[in-house]
């Protein structure tokens, strides 16, 4: 047999364990690494994995010498707010002056400021802007990601955002999962009438399902936004319509969103900086993935991070994401988040790799396709210009990706110092 592509001379091949359940607790500490490895690709799928020595006798139309570097599955970013209008650099000085995130929102800024810019932008403008950010994510090694709506808060603009995600799915050869976050904030006209607003948003469920515009429904459960009871009702309705569930939970105040997520069987509970001991205990009982966003805690200038150590030590499944958005975490760089996870969440390199691959894939319902490399799976992988897998969290703030592949096709490569190349989108 002649493979389409053979990647040989791989110093370390990272192979997270695939499983029908997310990796929990102690399981997160195990990471399979094959030294001196090679992979064969056929029709966009992994057709063979083995030792570099065995690879010498194999035939291939194209051979890539990984020069003893590291190869991993494509990274999975399970929480992004990719589609939005405008930017919010004017809020930095407010943050510096100590104005809290929820206070900026209460004054009509924050998320509501981006809602204004997103309403004004045309669908084409939003698409161009989201494409720019998506291409940058790919350049950092991401081949599967989630993208939320939530900067419309009215039917037209929410659907406009979801259609942009749809178009991104069609144009880019990466895997994009779409989430409806119509319940991201309370628009000014609905202050004190939150239930009415949620009812209006839930009326979109049927159209969204019919148009296959989103796989998940999410809500921001937080002081001054939506209560636990409102979140329960909204998510329960979404579940009945067949959506997967996500929740922005216990980010600032410990309202009990973590417990709610577990009780509803949500795919993920995200943020969890203020999750209670009881919430953390319950995570270990279910399969809801704790999606931690240390970039947001860092960017909001807080000293107190999500208790990843307690979560893992007590048996929870943890994933990591950028939370890329124009207000609380303005970066597309998931490698930077890996460094923050090491430094601020005290996660080990093995836990971090599992958190940005298999567990991240579980958090967005993509575990059977993304997050690891094994025979028959899509050949989504990254060649990293690093000497070993521990090096990426260690050397922070820069891009270590050398080339990025999805379905065996090269999407991006660094061609020279400061120069990059993105393959034309399909
Ligand atoms: N916390 C709520 N939503 C986003 C922030 C959105 C924004 O500030 O624009 C988050 O996940 O951090
Ligand atoms: Zn978010």
Automatic annotation (TrEMBL):
Q: In which pathway does it act?
A: Amino-acid degradation; L-histidine degradation into L-glutamate; N-formimidoyl-L-glutamate from L-histidine: step 3/3
For this protein, the parts annotated as crossing the membrane are: none
For this chain's record, the cofactor binding note is: Binds 1 zinc or iron ion per subunit.
Binding-site list for Fe(3+)? 79, 81, 248, 323
Required co-factor?
Zn(2+); Fe(3+)
GO annotations of cellular component type: cytoplasm
Q: What is its EC number?
A: 3.5.2.7
Where would I find the Amidohydrolase-related domain in this sequence?
70-400
Query: Biological process (GO) annotations?
Result: L-histidine catabolic process to glutamate and formamide; L-histidine catabolic process to glutamate and formate
Listed under catalytic activity are:
4-imidazolone-5-propanoate + H2O = N-formimidoyl-L-glutamate
In this record, what's one Pfam family? Amidohydro_1
Q: Which Gene Ontology MF annotations are present? A: imidazolonepropionase activity; iron ion binding; zinc ion binding
Which residues take part in binding N-formimidoyl-L-glutamate? Answer: 151, 325, 327
| Protein task | Catalyzes the hydrolytic cleavage of the carbon-nitrogen bond in imidazolone-5-propanoate to yield N-formimidoyl-L-glutamate. It is the third step in the universal histidine degradation pathway.
Its family?
Belongs to the metallo-dependent hydrolases superfamily. HutI family.
> Per its record, how is this protein called by name?
Imidazolonepropionase
Question: Source taxonomy lineage?
Answer: Bacteria, Bacillati, Bacillota, Bacilli, Bacillales
């Amino acid at each position: 047999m002649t493979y389409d592509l053979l990647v040989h001379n791989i110093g370390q091949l990272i192979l997270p364990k695939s499983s029908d359940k997310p990796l929990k607790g102690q399981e997160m500490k195990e990471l399979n690494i094959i030294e001196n490895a090679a992979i064969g690709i056929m029709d966009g799928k992994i057709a063979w994995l083995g030792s570099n020595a065995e690879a010498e006798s194999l035939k291939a139309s194209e051979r890539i010498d990984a020069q003893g570097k590291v190869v991993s599955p494509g990274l999975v970013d399970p929480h992004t707010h990719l589609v939005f209008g405008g930017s919010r650099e004017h809020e930095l000085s407010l943050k510096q002056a100590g104005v809290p995130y929820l206070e900026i929102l209460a004054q009509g800024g924050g998320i509501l400021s981006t809602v204004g810019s997103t309403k004004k932008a045309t669908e084409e403008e939003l698409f161009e802007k989201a494409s720019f950010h998506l291409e940058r994510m790919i350049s950092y090694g991401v081949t599967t990601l989630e993208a939320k709506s939530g900067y419309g808060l009215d039917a037209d603009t929410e659907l406009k955002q979801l259609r942009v995600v749809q178009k991104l799915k069609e144009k880019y050869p990466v895997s994009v999962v779409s989430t409806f976050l119509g319940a991201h904030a309370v628009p000014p006209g609905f202050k004190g009438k939150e239930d009415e607003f949620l009812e209006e948003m839930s009326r979109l469920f049927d159209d969204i399902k019919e148009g296959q515009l989103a796989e998940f429904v999410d809500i921001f459960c937080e002081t001054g936004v939506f209560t636990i009871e409102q979140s329960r009702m909204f998510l329960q309705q979404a579940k009945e319509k067949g959506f997967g569930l996500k929740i922005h939970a216990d980010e600032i105040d410990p309202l009990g969103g973590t417990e709610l997520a577990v009780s509803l069987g949500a795919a993920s509970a995200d943020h969890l900086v203020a999750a209670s001991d009881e919430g953390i205990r319950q995570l270990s009982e279910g399969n809801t993935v704790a999606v931690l966003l240390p970039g947001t805690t860092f960017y909001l200038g807080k000293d107190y991070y999500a208790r990843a150590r307690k979560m893992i030590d007590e048996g929870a499944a943890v994933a990591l994401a950028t939370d890329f958005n124009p207000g609380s975490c303005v970066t597309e760089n998931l490698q930077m988040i890996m460094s923050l996870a090491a430094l601020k969440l005290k996660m080990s390199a093995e836990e971090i790799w599992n958190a940005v691959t298999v567990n991240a894939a579980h958090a967005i319902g993509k575990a059977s396709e993304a997050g690891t490399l094994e025979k028959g799976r899509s050949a989504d992988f990254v060649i990293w210009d690093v000497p070993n897998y521990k090096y990426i969290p260690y050397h922070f703030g820069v891009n270590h990706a050398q080339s990025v592949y999805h379905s065996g096709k090269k999407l991006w490569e660094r061609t020279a110092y400061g120069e990059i190349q993105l393959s034309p989108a399909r």
